Amino acid sequence: MTWFRSAVFNLYFYAWTALSALVLSPALVMPRNLGMLAARFWVGGVNLGLRLICGITVEVKGRERLANGPVLIAAKHQSAWDTIALLSICGMPAVVLKRELTWIPLYGWYILVMRMIPIDRSAGAKALKDMVRRAKAAAAGGRSVLIFPQGTRVAVGTKAPYQPGVAALYAQLGLPCVPVALNSGLVWPRRAFRRPPGRITVEFLPPIPPGLRRDPFMTSLEAQVEAASDALAAVAKAGPPA
């Protein structure tokens, strides 16, 4: 049954994405706020499909930690779901993402209209400088900035290094950093077809205040995100209490 539901959802997801992109395409030439509303509508449809077709629900903890002005959001990245849903959950931040996503017809255009922060990962120091410049502009306009510190999706239980981009943003923006733990990889794994039923939990952790030196900041960020994400995965695997 899981395979059948997964097949239905995958068909639904691509059909819903294509339909949303076409129907909402006028938002591409309208003010950015309308583009953000269009994105929220699309995300809502994706999550509705997950719930009704696959039996996957979403729980968010600690969202109040985003309430006090723009922040730097540093999130664990396990699934394609993260780039879809955190956009809406985090209040439409400026998201640091790979430049290749802007090449996707319609979807890439939405990224540009909403003034996200696409980076050319092959450009080295130049990409880092451009990322910081765009992030500063977003923060100056009152927007939070979202980055996935590991730079790619990492399977549940697998370790990968935290990249220097998040440290550069933390140092240059002078904003509190809100770490984000999640367990989305359990139900929407990287490069996997199956969407087993379960609950995705996203947890916003206590902010790291600005002003720390690079090494203490990176150590604190990684320790918090990894420990909390592992805990969320363990709870989900254990299932509901008897």
UniProtKB/TrEMBL annotation:
Keywords: Acyltransferase, Membrane, Transferase, Transmembrane, Transmembrane helix
Transmembrane segments: 7-29
Record-given protein name: 1-acyl-sn-glycerol-3-phosphate acyltransferase
GO terms, molecular function: 1-acylglycerol-3-phosphate O-acyltransferase activity
Example of a GO biological process term: phosphatidic acid biosynthetic process
Organism: Zavarzinia compransoris
Residue span(s) of domain Phospholipid/glycerol acyltransferase: 71-185
A Pfam match: Acyltransferase
Pathway field: Lipid metabolism
Organism domain of life: Bacteria
Keyword match Transmembrane helix: yes
